[in-house]
Specification:
MarR/SlyA-like, mainly alpha, 51% helix, 3 strands, 184 residues, three-stranded antiparallel β-sheet
């Protein structure tokens, strides 16, 4: 009798491994959550619009910050200048982004979306938000807002220094439960 090997797509959400200490590891929980959000992104935006998550994010940032520079994008996304240049080149080749010379500093190029990209972003964002609401309907509107707020706080810590040697080696205790926000 042959056994079928399990691949990630074959494992249902009800199949669980013992996670023990991983339950307290924020990075693990975020990685598990990203499996869901990545699937939603790919179904709602990635495949229909042929966009990668980084491309969508760049377009969204350029849309809300027209005239910004590639250096600003690189810093916001924590990537290198050559890496951001490669992504901008790809978006420009697809006629989604325009590089415009700065009027005040001719060495600087400013980025803006094309009309094609503006239309695409309106559609893509609407589809993405609807897909997330549907996939995450286990959360109330208030819980979703609270989760977004907490994730923004986590993201704001990305530049904070980390003193690994000062980290305690004893097992972490579960934090005291906070009261959930009222359901909307």
């Amino acid at each position: 009798m042959s056994k079928k090997m399990a691949v990630p797509g074959d494992v249902g959400p009800d199949v669980r491994l013992v996670e023990d200490d991983l339950q307290q590891v924020l990075g693990y929980q975020m990685a598990q959550a990203s499996i869901t959000t990545t699937r939603v992104f790919m179904e709602a935006v990635g495949r229909p619009f042929d966009l990668r998550p980084v491309e969508y994010t760049m377009l969204a940032l350029i849309q809300k910050n027209p005239g910004g520079s590639a250096a600003q994008l690189a810093k916001a996304l924590a990537v290198t200048a050559p890496n951001i240049t490669m992504w901008v080149d790809r978006l420009e080749a697809r006629q989604l982004v325009q590089r415009l010379r700065s009027e005040t500093d001719r060495r600087t190029q400013r980025l803006q979306l094309t009309a094609k990209a503006s239309k695409l972003m309106t559609q893509a964002t609407a589809r993405l938000l609807a897909g997330e609401r549907q996939a995450l309907d286990i959360l109330s509107a208030a819980e979703r807002a609270y989760l977004v707020e907490l994730l923004q706080k986590v993201a704001s810590c990305r530049a904070a220094p980390i003193a690994v040697d000062a980290v305690a080696t004893e097992p972490a205790r579960p934090p005291a439960r906070r009261r959930k926000p009222e359901a909307a």
